[in-house]
Specification:
The structure holds two protein chains of two kinds. By secondary structure, chain A is an alpha/beta fold. Helix content of chain A is about 40%, strand content about 25%. Chain A is globular. Chain B has a two-stranded antiparallel ribbon with strand order 1-2. The chains are: A alpha/beta, B mainly alpha.
Chain lengths: ~260, ~350
């Protein structure tokens, strides 16, 4: 692994049946930066993303994180190593309060098991208090602390997305994966989201996002990887991508004009 | 917030009244049959609490609880009647043994979900039942069964009266309820709820924050089995004689009916369900022949079924919902926002949510 990159994707392919969704894609996500994966619909962005998150193993190739190989490991293990994620289609725990949703996010940072919680051992009680406080802190970070006792479904869509981010941040990840964070948001909400993501980066968390809303990507990404038909077509700074002829032809086209 | 506190106080006073009522109950009830009915309610409710941890919180169905109930009973019975172990040590050993058996089988069958898991756990009940019948040298089979199981004793006091077992079983129930409730309101309880896919959880989301559903399912399955085992041990020492017949499919079904009828989203549902099923059975046995002199046993079962369907139509979440329904009716229409989150945090109510893949 080279210096300065937190995540290294090496020649990763993913085949579903006969369909090659991702073909020999390699890139590195530099530490402390915001990196975006873009590409037209069906380019393999989400497949690549889910492979990194461990939803399924790559068909070939390897993924390295903080110097250890994570490809092939179950996603809960990858999460506990320091990779958190949000979902394109929201996956909040609707059987819990907003606060409890984020408290579940403390799971990899806490330890109490069946016995110590059943017996209310002092360690477990103290830990529960810390979980509660820490979760509230993360809620405050996205401006949702006043909704702590509400059910997630009572929040407007944009805030539900922020709640997923708060839950992911509660794991205190080194790498945050955002799957189409701007999907379904208004232009104004996207501006707020952009500031939020920049704040997250500035707090030391590396961000990797899959997105097709260019106003978000071009505004905040430090580095962009372009996928097309499952292959890496280009990568570079936003200004380079915006001026890349092939990218424009394949995807950006009139959006950049 | 004040309403939340109100519920808390209501709950504490309810527990106080319950304990007080239980303490004086054997003085009021002189009919030993009726008292034994209450003892059985507590024994089944202990199994029910374990089952509601598994089904209500972790979302995993089990028709195998009768097997664990039976393993606990027979382990205690054999170890004390034949091996002359101390009954309390035997009870702990039985629970550990049952927990290990559940963990080993659970490791295999908990990969399945829904109806497949139901059938797999049902098979477990059948297998254990057959073993209890066939392993005659150890269990005594169907006849002579396993007689001579010693009574329990506490600090030299021999528990040989019905009311002793009434107190013992209800004390055990309350302690085990307390432990289960602590688990539910903790990191572990939240993790269990996080992957309950029928009730607004999501395995994908749970895993994305480091929760390991596979491991937790096995653990909670083993825990539910240990609850069943403890209930089985108490049963064995109370009856002092064992026969395989109570530990078959019918018991597994009855236990499931209890927790569903009582309400899966609250641990109290297990107690309420056990009490209802037992009371209903007895009441119908007394009432139906009075109303319909020519009616035989089958008619009681029909009445039993009809009443259960009516209860579940009125309160789909089980009987624990009924006070809330009455409360809501008294208060009139209330705003959704003030009600829903509170219920959710109590783990009583959850909205079903459409989940994308």
């Amino acid at each position: 692994m080279q210096d300065g990159s937190l995540l290294e994707v090496q020649e990763v392919s993913k085949v579903f049946g006969g369909l090659v969704a991702v073909h020999r894609v390699s890139f590195q996500a530099p530490t402390g930066k915001i990196m975006a994966i873009i590409g037209p619909n069906g380019a393999g962005k989400t497949t690549l993303f889910n492979t990194i998150a461990g939803l399924f193993p790559p068909s070939s190739g390897q993924i390295w994180f903080k110097g250890s190989k994570i490809s092939g490991r179950p996603s809960h293990h990858i999460a506990s190593l320091g990779i958190a994620r949000t979902f394109q289609l929201l996956q909040l725990f609707t059987n819990m309060t907003v606060h409890e949703n984020v408290m579940v996010g403390r799971h990899p940072r806490s330890h109490a098991g069946f016995l110590s919680t059943a017996l209310r051992l002092p360690g477990a009680v103290a830990e529960e208090k810390r979980i509660r406080e820490k979760a509230l802190e993360k809620l405050a970070l996205v401006g949702l602390e006043s909704r702590a006792n509400d059910t997630p479904l009572s929040l407007p869509y944009g805030q539900q997305k922020l709640l997923e981010i708060a839950r992911a941040l509660a794991t205190e990840p080194d790498l945050l994966l955002l799957d189409e964070p701007a999907g379904g948001l208004s232009t104004r909400e996207i501006e707020g989201l952009a500031r939020q993501i920049l704040d997250i980066r500035d707090s030391g968390v590396t961000v990797l996002l899959v997105e097709h809303r260019m106003e978000l990507v071009m505004g905040i990404a430090d580095w962009i990887v372009v996928l097309n038909y499952g292959e890496k077509m280009a990568e570079g700074l936003p200004s380079q991508i915006q001026n890349d002829e092939r990218v424009i032809a394949a995807y950006l086209g009139d959006e950049l004009d | 917030m004040t309403e939340r506190k109100g519920i808390k106080y209501a709950r504490y006073s309810l527990i106080g009244v319950l304990i007080l009522g239980l303490a004086v109950l054997p003085q009021i009830i002189t009919n030993p049959y009726l008292l034994s009915l209450f003892t059985f309610i507590a024994i089944y409710a202990i199994v029910g609490i374990g089952l509601s941890l598994l089904m209500g919180y972790a979302g995993q169905i089990s028709l195998g609880q009768a097997a664990f109930f039976g393993i606990g009973a027979y382990a205690s019975g054999v170890l004390t009647a034949k091996q002359m172990w101390d009954p309390w040590i035997a009870m702990v050993a039985a629970a550990l043994l049952t927990g290990i058996i559940a963990a080993l089988t659970g490791g295999i069958i908990l990969r399945f979900q829904g109806h497949v898991l139901a059938v797999a756990t049902l098979a477990l009940t059948i297998i254990v039942y057959i073993l209890l019948v066939q392993l005659e040298p150890i269990t005594g089979g169907l006849s002579p069964g396993l007689p001579g199981i010693p009574r329990l004793s506490i600090l030299g006091l021999k528990l040989n009266k019905d009311f002793h077992y009434f107190y013992l079983s209800w004390a055990a129930l309350l302690v085990l309820l307390f432990l289960a409730s602590n688990i539910v309101h903790s990191r572990v309880g939240r993790a269990l709820r996080s992957f309950h896919h029928f009730y607004g959880g999501s395995e994908q989301a749970a895993e994305s924050v480091g929760v390991n559903p596979t491991l937790l399912k096995v653990q909670v399955f083993a825990l539910s089995a240990m609850y069943a085992s403890i209930a089985g041990s108490i049963y064995a020492h109370y009856i002092s004689y064992l026969n395989p017949s109570p530990f078959g499919i019918f018991m597994s079904l009855q236990l499931m009916v209890m927790v569903i009828l009582g309400g899966l989203r609250s641990l109290w549902g297990a107690i309420l369900g056990a009490a209802t099923v037992m009371a209903l059975g007895e009441a119908l046995r007394a009432v139906v022949p009075m109303l319909f002199p020519k009616a035989f046993g089958e008619y009681q079962i029909i009445a039993y079924g009809v009443i259960m369907i009516v209860i579940l139509l009125m309160a789909p979440e089980g009987m624990v919902q009924i006070p809330r329904i009455i409360w809501a009716a008294l208060r009139g229409i209330r705003s959704k926002e003030s009600q829903a989150p509170q219920l959710a945090s109590e783990g009583v109510v959850a909205q079903r949510a459409e989940k994308g893949s």
